[in-house]
Write a structure and sequence with these properties.
The structure holds 2 protein chains of 2 kinds.
Chain A (H helix, E strand, L loop, with lengths): L1 H23 L14 E2 L2 H10 L1 H6 L5 E2 L2 H10 L3 H11 L3 E2 L2 H9 L7 H10 L8 E2 L2 H10 L6 H11 L8 H8 L1 H34 L3 H16 L2 H12 L4 H7 L13 H29 L3 H9 L4 H12 L1 H17 L2 H6 L11 H9 L9 H25 L2 H5 L7
Antiparallel strand pairs in A: 1-4, 2-3
Helix pairs in contact in A: 1-21, 2-9, 4-5, 6-7, 10-21, 11-12, 11-15, 11-18, 12-15, 15-18, 18-21, 20-21
Chain B lengths: L2 H23 L1 E9 L8 H19 L4 E9 L4 H12 L6 E5 L3 H6 L3 E2 L17 H6 L1 E2 L2 E2 L1 E3 L7 E4 H6 L4 H13 L4 H13 L9 E2 L7 H8 L5 E2 L2 E4 L1 H16 L12 H9 L5 E3 L4 H8 L5 H4 E4 L11 E2 L3 E6 L4 H14 L2 H11 L12 H4 L2 H10 L3 E2 L7 H16 L5 H16 L3 E3 L1
Parallel strand pairs in B: 1-2, 1-3, 9-12, 11-17, 14-16
Antiparallel strand pairs in B: 3-15, 4-15, 5-6, 7-15, 8-12, 8-13, 10-11
Helix pairs in contact in B: 2-14, 2-15, 9-10, 10-18, 10-19, 18-19
Classes of the chains: A mainly alpha, B alpha/beta.
Chain lengths: ~425, ~450
């Protein structure tokens, strides 16, 4: 029976982590593409080669098109109109053109009028430079360089290949960037602040408060309160956040209300980093509190009523009941909620994306949002898959480490050990 | 008796078969077109292909071919989602045939092999391509190949609300002369700050509304860097001019300090910005030529020329007045058959004809792509198009096509925002930007 579970774990838990780890070890971006690259001698590549191989860089820096016998033979083999090669041989033999455009202008003017696509096919055959030609294989580039008279040693070939490759390569650079960037450090602190404050104030404390207060209410009143606190969770997140925006925008409710007292309208959500954090934590906290509330309420329900009765007979106050009866028996649910919510807060960023987008000035940019912005969504269209994956991997590691620490603190082993009394 | 029904059905079958044979000879081609940053006034970015397809089909019919082109149009109103969708679709081999996007995407997409040079399918010496402004064709070239056909041009002016300018002491003649003063460097960004402050002090506009910039990241912000003497690229290498960038960051910090721009301006709701600008809530602001279309068509600012003056982006210390043109280009995506790409290219060529392109230029208040387009009646008769072309376009520069420019931009903007909101000082922002540029781009960027 272990097989289906193992397959599920592998597919849905391990595979994403493994893939993230693989991506994290590359410099993959929109520009390098995902599926691999080609070899192209661009101006940029020549700049890179100038230091190591100045002769080669100088020799291949200019485009050059020559009408020669070799090209004519290749043209005849293509079996296009015979007139092309006849005319080229008769009137243009030996001509040299310093750019593709000029060579193609001549080809275009041939009496048999080649089509645009044929012009390209023909001009390729007379290309006697490698500048800006895209080679699908490394050997293709090396063979062309050899034809141009550059015989390279294997080490030189390696240098040229590295400088001209357009695809991604394996690297640990991403982790160095993460480690050295002051912005990353700031984002890390933002995340720690956001997770710990939301967790402590709302997901655990406020949830406990709700669970305990509703416990002491009559059943019907209690369920109304719980239902109200479930609303943020069951409202679609886009609509939920939009309502917060209506509340906080320049023309929103708070502005209108404060306007009555003569305060000028302002955007309360993005007014300052403090405001933004205040609302971000409320928006997330109100959603998060409901889960803790449900878990704790049911755990309190599971405490035998006799214990409450007995404590009341002993004259315990409400606070003493909470302190000595309820809380000790909630250790396991509190561990669960803390652990689960830490991970979910670390990984979730949709509420922040929808409300502040990480602003103002990236003040509320948290790690997962930054990873998303880096890897998948930014204005300049430069998606840095590799760096984004490395950031996500850091998150996975942090999550695992935190879980282990929690298990230690809450002494998980004693929670699952067999009760001594039944032995 | 049984022969007749058999004969009947055989004839019917034959007729059916023959009819399908006729249908089969007609060729159905689906050409998909995506465009980014396309609002309600930009529908001709994709709609132009309906007209182009109609013409191409008719041309084919005259040659005796039956060509049936189905144009699938997918306009995106924003940029982030569009670029995400497009790059991921292309990586998954589901790219559209044609895409209209900012020219700065040509660098990375060409390197990744997501697009093919359009000159592979279009003769650049043929009309109407030969007629397109050469500097626009330059902007759509990369690594020695022409990758895209410019779809529009524009430039990004500063706008001044005339009634407030008058209220702080400018005469009608002064306002009339403002564009020339800006061009000559007699009116600078420093004056912008002062005038914005005056407007607020007089109570004409609320605090934070004196200078009311763009609400999110955009090419516009490179103009300020240029105004303060910055250069984006030199001989194929990106350039980060520390002093110019510091002056740029500092300028926005100063605007906030003087109270004429809000520190939390970036990220405010865009719709609100438009409404406020159109109703005279802001004193001075900047935008693009296409803002004219939205202000007049959607926001109800009917008497634009009575209320608004426009100029180049004023110069600052170390630089001069400028504007930026950010042409969109039609690109051909890779991964399609040669035949399909040829049809797509033919469509692009037709859509670039002056009369068709003028529909987009005038409806969306962009600028034309060729001299002959300015002679089309629709274009020539439009006051905005002709004045803006004359006043702004000669001074326009463009962002570089460089595969690494996006990384540079992301880092530049992130620190821009941080110094604007006061999260970092201008000094710290420039130093952080420098550190990050060094570690991510290394030798690919000149830092000075």
């Amino acid at each position: 029976m272990i097989a289906p579970a193992a397959v599920m774990i592998f597919l849905f838990f391990l595979m994403p982590v493994v893939l993230t780890a693989i991506f994290a070890m590359t410099n993959m971006t929109t520009a390098t593409g995902i599926s691999g690259g080609a070899w192209q001698v661009t101006q940029g590549a020549i700049n890179r080669l100038k230091a190591d191989m100045p002769d080669l860089a100088g020799g291949i820096a200019e485009p050059r098109f020559v009408i020669d016998e070799e090209g004519l033979a290749a043209l005849e083999a293509l079996k296009l109109k015979a007139g092309f090669s006849t005319e080229l041989r008769a009137s243009h033999m030996g001509e040299v053109f310093p750019s593709r455009r000029e060579a193609e202008r001549m080809i275009k003017a041939l009496k048999d009028r080649p089509s645009t696509r044929e012009v390209k096919q023909i001009s390729d055959l007379f290309n006697r430079s490698v500048l800006n030609t895209r080679f699908e294989t490394r050997d293709g580039l090396m063979a062309s360089l050899k034809k141009l008279g550059f015989t390279l040693t294997p080490a030189e070939q390696e240098t040229v290949a590295t400088a001209t490759y357009t695809g991604w390569v394996w690297t640990t650079e991403n982790f160095r960037i993460i480690g050295n960037s002051p912005d990353m450090a700031q984002i890390f602190l933002n995340t720690a602040f956001y997770v710990s404050v939301t967790l402590l104030l709302f997901n655990v404390s406020y949830a406990l408060f709700l669970a305990i207060t509703t416990h002491y209410m009559p059943a019907s009143t209690a369920s109304i309160f719980r239902a109200i606190w479930l609303l943020p969770r069951i409202t679609p997140v886009v609509i939920y956040v939009l309502m917060w925006k209506w509340l906080t925008w320049d023309s929103g409710f708070i502005s209108m209300f404060m306007g009555q007292f003569g305060y000028p309208a302002k955007n309360y959500l993005l007014d300052s980093a403090y405001n933004a954090w205040f609302f971000v934590i409320l928006i997330n906290g109100f959603i998060g509190a409901s889960m803790g509330m449900l878990v704790f309420s049911s755990a309190i329900k599971a405490i035998p009523q006799t214990q409450f009765h007995a404590s009341e007979v002993d004259g315990a106050s409400r606070w003493q009941q909470v302190r000595h009866v309820i809380l000790p028996q909630l250790r396991w649910p509190i561990l669960f909620v803390t652990c689960y919510q830490t991970l979910s807060l670390l990984a979730s960023f949709n509420e922040i994306l929808l409300s502040t987008r990480g602003g103002p000035g990236r003040a509320t940019e948290v790690w997962s949002l930054a990873a998303y912005h880096t890897a998948l969504n930014n204005y300049t269209g430069n998606l840095e898959y590799g760096l984004g994956a490395a950031m996500a991997l850091v998150l996975v590691v942090v999550g695992i480490v935190l879980s282990l620490i929690y298990l230690r603190i809450f002494r998980y082993d004693t929670l699952i050990s067999k009760p001594l009394i039944e032995d | 008796m049984t022969v007749l029904p058999i004969l009947k059905s055989a004839t019917l079958a034959a007729v059916l078969l023959a009819s399908t044979a006729v249908f089969a000879s007609a060729k159905d081609v689906t050409i998909s077109v995506w465009s980014g940053g396309s609002g309600p006034n930009d529908n001709y970015r994709t709609d132009a292909f309906d007209i182009a397809a109609d013409i191409l089909e008719r041309e084919a019919a005259i040659r005796g071919q039956q060509l049936n082109i189905i144009v699938q149009k997918t306009p995106y109103s924003g940029w982030e989602d569009f670029k995400q969708a497009l790059t991921l679709a292309a990586e998954a081999k589901k790219a559209p045939n044609i895409v209209a996007t900012g020219h700065e995407d040509i660098g990375p997409w060409a390197q990744a092999g997501l697009i093919v040079p359009v000159e592979k399918f279009i003769d650049l010496d043929s009309w109407p391509i030969s007629d397109i402004y050469p500097n626009l064709m330059e902007i759509t070239s990369f690594n020695g190949s022409v990758y895209g056909i410019p779809q529009d041009a524009e430039s990004r002016p500063f706008f001044f609300w005339k009634p407030y300018m008058k209220a702080i002491g400018y005469s009608d003649a002064d306002i009339e002369a403002l564009p020339a003063k800006v061009e000559k460097g007699e009116y600078t960004l420093k004056n912008v700050l002062e005038d914005a402050k005056k407007m607020q002090d007089k109570g004409l506009v609320q605090a934070g509304y004196g200078f009311y910039p763009r609400t999110n990241n955009g090419p516009d912000y490179w103009q300020f860097y240029t105004s303060f003497g910055g250069v984006m690229e030199e001989e194929g290498k990106l350039v980060f001019d520390k002093a110019a960038m510091k002056r740029t960051y500092q300028y926005f910090a100063d605007l906030v300090k003087a109270g004429v721009t809000k520190k939390n301006h970036v990220g405010m709701p865009g719709d609100q910005w438009w409404k406020e600008v159109a109703t005279g809530k802001a004193g001075i602001w900047h935008g693009g030529t296409w803002h004219y279309a939205r202000l007049v068509n959607q926001e109800g600012l009917k008497d634009f020329f009575t209320n608004v003056q426009f100029t180049l982006v004023p110069g600052g210390e170390g630089g001069k007045a400028n504007t930026l043109t950010h042409p969109l280009a039609y690109l051909l995506m890779a991964g399609h058959t040669e035949e399909e790409s040829q049809i797509a290219a033919d469509l692009i060529k037709i859509a670039s004809e002056p009369r068709i392109n003028a529909l987009h230029a005038i409806k969306s208040a962009h600028l034309g792509i060729s001299p002959s387009e300015t002679k089309v009646d629709l274009y020539a008769a439009d006051r905005w198009a002709s004045e803006a072309t004359e006043r702004l376009l000669p001074h326009a520069n463009a962002m570089p096509n460089n595969a690494d420019f996006g990384k540079y931009w992301t880092i530049m903007w992130k620190n821009f925002e941080a110094s604007w909101t006061g999260a970092k000082t201008a000094d710290a922002a420039v130093n952080d930007a420098e550190a990050e540029l060094k570690s991510t781009l290394g030798a690919a960027i000149i830092i000075r």
